[in-house]
């Protein structure tokens, strides 16, 4: 029997599902242990239909949310069939070659049963502080195979029918640098799943399993239709663009090409990534799940109408990415900084879409995760790990300046407050603020990057950095100038030494300062068109200076 839903009932259920995902989000935030989860908010939560397709999500990280469904489908298609999932099971994984993205991101899924039948699945993803590997924070910049990057978790049951697998739990704790924090964050994910299950059971009890199933299908169909409508109203044509990553950290003089050809025909879009560089030795490769996330985000971001984000949005988009490319790496390529090609691919796609719908597309944003991982060691041999992910300036729009130091694109992170870091680790701050003159010039100015400087107060410390945009600046559009490049430096005894964008386990000592400067966004339009009033305001705010 087919269940029909009137528009009001469907909208009530859509909001109820979104609220359930949001309550899961709040649960992680309130119960997590690490600063990367609790303060930076590097986690996501989502609701899936009974077959594993995303129907609702929290307002969290695009890189996570568009790829969690890909991972879930890989798990159920290739490893643990849905028919084998029981009430109370919790399935976890982090292996990029089993549907994940990179090893610090641990996925956790739990089925929802009502009256003996599976009616939904709930999921969480947390970026964990450390999962082992060559460098603290598991972001080593010099890995040449995934075995060096940390603990790989294939799809497995952490809980079976409600009972925790203590052997797996112990194995996880034995392989990470700060087990109490990592296992605490994992327990936070489990609590979030419990909240999601409780809310979905209430919905199933109130409306019936058949109605809930029908609502999920209708929501996917509605987003499919909305996405097709957006594509249909874009001019048919073939649009190509490219940009480059600085290098892979191993071959430091070899740029890495990201190229996309977008074909729009009617209500379909084909994104061909065949022109991207082959996979590289260093850890800036991405698997197809991670790359798909970037493509879907870019397509939805250029929409000119609201579209409820779910798996229905992906149906009209075809991705062509042969295996063995940097955007579809073959095992065992390292992938710790898989977000580097993801960010850059978004900028590439924005550049292609700007040829089709120039009135709504921005110049390039900073397009990089500026990852700094510190491990400090005190005289009594206490060790602490800190992972920070900084951002930069946004690209200008045709009618608006770019936002300053704003989490954009594949990001949706917050900053970790200085006070939280200084209270918990032997690190202090020698500076933090907007970086003058870093936004691209234009009729509309690109957003400013930022600077952040960490001072080591421990006896010993190490730094690992995974960054980019030091050579290839964020592009401007319509005559706008590029954003400033990023920079990283060690300041020791007053002497500044410039560092490469990718650093592994650099030894630091008490008093050393690490200073990061992130790139600004690209400008839009001829700078001469910026009127006098805007120029005077910029000068008053310090956007135009003699230099950095």
The count of helical stretches stands at: 10
Give the class from helix and strand content and strand pairing: alpha+beta
- Unreliable stretches (pLDDT < 50, length at least 5) are none
Question: How far is it from the N-terminal to the C-terminal residue, by CA?
Answer: 68 Å
Query: Could you tell me the number of beta strands?
Result: 20
Strand order of the largest sheet: 2-1-5-4-3-6-7
Q: Tell me the radius of gyration.
A: 23 Å
Mean pLDDT across all residues, rounded?
94
Largest sheet entry: 7 strands, antiparallel
Order of helices and strands: HHEEHEEEEEHHHEEEHEHEEHEEEEEEEH
Instruction: Name the shape in a single word.
Output: globular
User: How many domains comprise the coordinates?
Assistant: 2
As a percent range, the share of helical residues equals 25-40%
Task: Please report which band the strand proportion falls in: under 5%, 5-15%, 15-25%, 25-35%, 35-45% or over 45%.
Answer: 15-25%
Keywords summarizing the entry:
548 residues, alpha+beta, 2 domains, seven-stranded antiparallel beta sheet, five-stranded antiparallel beta sheet, globular
Q: How would you characterize the overall build of this protein?
A:
- This protein has 548 residues and is α+β, with helices and mostly antiparallel strands.
- It contains ten helices and 20 strands.
- The protein folds into two domains: 218 residues, no CATH class; 187 residues, no CATH class.
- A seven-stranded antiparallel β-sheet has the order 2-1-5-4-3-6-7.
- Helix 1 packs antiparallel against helix 5 and helix 3 crosses helix 7.
- The longest helix has 29 residues.
- It starts with 6 loop residues before the first helix and ends in a 7-residue tail after the last helix.
- The model has no long low-confidence stretch (mean pLDDT 94).
């Amino acid at each position: 029997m087919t269940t029909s839903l009137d528009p009001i009932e469907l909208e009530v259920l859509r909001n109820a599902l979104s609220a359930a995902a949001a309550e899961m989000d709040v649960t992680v935030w309130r119960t997590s242990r690490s600063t990367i989860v609790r303060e930076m908010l590097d986690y996501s939560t989502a609701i899936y239909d009974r077959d594993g397709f995303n129907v609702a999500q929290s307002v969290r990280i695009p890189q996570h949310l568009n790829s969690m469904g890909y991972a879930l489908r890989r798990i159920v298609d290739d490893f643990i069939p849905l028919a084998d999932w029981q009430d109370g099971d919790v399935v976890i994984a982090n292996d990029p070659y089993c549907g994940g993205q990179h090893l610090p991101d641990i996925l956790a899924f739990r089925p929802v049963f009502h009256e003996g039948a599976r009616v939904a699945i709930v999921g969480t993803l947390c970026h964990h502080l450390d999962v082992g590997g060559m460098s603290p924070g598991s972001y080593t910049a010099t890995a040449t195979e995934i075995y060096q990057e940390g603990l790989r978790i294939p799809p497995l049951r952490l809980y079976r029918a409600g009972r925790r697998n203590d052997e797996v739990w112990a194995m996880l704790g034995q392989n990470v640098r700060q087990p109490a924090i990592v296992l605490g964050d994992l327990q936070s994910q489990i609590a979030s799943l419990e909240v999601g299950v409780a809310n979905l059971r209430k919905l199933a009890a109130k409306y019936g399993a058949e109605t809930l199933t029908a609502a999920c299908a209708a929501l996917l169909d509605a987003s499919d239709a909305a996405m097709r409508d957006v594509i249909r109203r874009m001019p048919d044509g073939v649009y190509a663009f490219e940009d480059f990553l600085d290098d892979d950290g191993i071959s430091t003089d070899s740029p890495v090409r990201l190229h996309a050809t977008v074909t729009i025909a009617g209500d379909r879009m084909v994104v061909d990534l065949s022109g991207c560089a082959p996979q590289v030795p260093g850890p800036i490769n991405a698997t197809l799940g991670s790359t798909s996330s970037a493509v879907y985000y870019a397509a939805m971001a250029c929409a000119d109408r609201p579209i409820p984000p779910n798996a229905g949005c992906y149906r009209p988009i075809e991705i062509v990415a042969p295996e063995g490319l940097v955007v579809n790496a073959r095992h065992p390529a390292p992938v710790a900084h898989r977000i580097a090609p993801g960010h850059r691919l978004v900028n590439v796609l924005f550049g292609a879409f700007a040829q089709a719908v120039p009135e709504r597309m921005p110049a390039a944003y900073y397009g990089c995760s500026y990852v700094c991982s510190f491990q400090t060691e005190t005289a009594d041999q206490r060790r602490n790990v800190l992972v920070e992910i900084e951002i930069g300036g946004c690209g200008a729009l045709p009618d608006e300046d770019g936002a300053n130091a704003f989490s954009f694109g594949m990001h949706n992170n917050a900053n970790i407050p200085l006070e939280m870091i200084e209270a918990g680790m032997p690190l202090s701050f020698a500076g933090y603020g907007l970086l003058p003159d870093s936004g691209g010039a234009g009729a509309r100015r690109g957003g400013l990057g930022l600077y952040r400087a960490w001072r080591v107060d421990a006896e010993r410390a190490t730094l690992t950095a995974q960054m980019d945009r030091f050579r290839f600046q964020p592009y401007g559009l319509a005559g706008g100038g590029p954003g400033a490049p990023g920079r990283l430096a060690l300041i020791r005894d007053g002497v500044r030494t410039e560092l490469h964008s990718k650093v592994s386990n650099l030894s630091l000592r008490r008093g050393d300062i690490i200073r990061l400067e992130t790139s600004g966004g690209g400008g839009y339009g001829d700078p001469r068109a910026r009127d006098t009033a805007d120029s005077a305001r910029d000068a008053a705010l310090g956007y135009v200076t003699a230099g950095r």
